[in-house]
Write a structure and sequence with these properties.
Layout lengths: L1 H8 L8 H8 L2 E6 L4 E3 L7 E7 L2 E7 L3 E8 L4 E2 L13 E4 L3 E7 H10 L1 H36 L2
Antiparallel strand pairs: 1-8, 2-7, 3-6, 3-8, 4-5, 4-7
Helix pairs in contact: 1-2, 3-4
Length: about 160
């Protein structure tokens, strides 16, 4: 029941029915990570997503010749991971704890099965994840504009 309370307070789940929250909570467990731990690795199986309760998680791409490039930092109240939603269910980025991190880890495989049984729930979750993906794409776009405007100015 404690997870239901945490979900109720989390911005991502605001407005969901109690029945949906109970079902989702049944798919979750609290999980902590130490600074430097990976929540997900690019190319590995993506079978969970995380509600960040406390701490900071970076979304990164690894380049062999340059190392990790941080695309974005997530923190309290953010959702980490949507690769569990889309075949082939593999992480598209690395998710790495920048600080100690407390989360609710939600079982994506189990939740996908619940969404298949209840398309209304699936549609609701898809809309919520689509909003997050749109926001993150916009943030990445602004980052690229900033990066390239600095490079363009350097050559002038």
């Amino acid at each position: 029941m404690a997870l239901v309370g945490s979900l109720t307070q989390h911005p991502f789940f605001r407005g969901m029915t109690m029945a949906d929250l109970q079902l989702i909570a049944a798919c979750g467990a609290r999980k902590s990570f130490a600074a430097g731990d990976y929540l997900g690795r690019e190319g590995h199986s993506a079978d969970h997503f995380y509600l960040i309760l406390r701490g900071q998680v970076s979304i990164e791409i690894y380049f062999p010749e340059r190392g990790a490039l941080r695309l974005q930092t997530l923190s309290d109240g953010d959702i980490a991971g949507w690769s569990w939603l889309f075949p082939p269910y593999r992480w598209r980025f690395d998710l790495r704890a920048q600080t100690s991190v407390d989360t609710i880890a939600l079982d994506g495989c189990r939740l996908r099965a619940e969404c298949d049984r209840d398309p209304r729930l699936g549609y609701d979750l898809m809309q919520r994840f689509a909003a997050i993906m749109t926001d993150r794409l916009q943030a990445t776009r602004l980052q690229l504009v900033d990066l390239y405007s600095h490079h363009a100015g350097a050559g002038s």
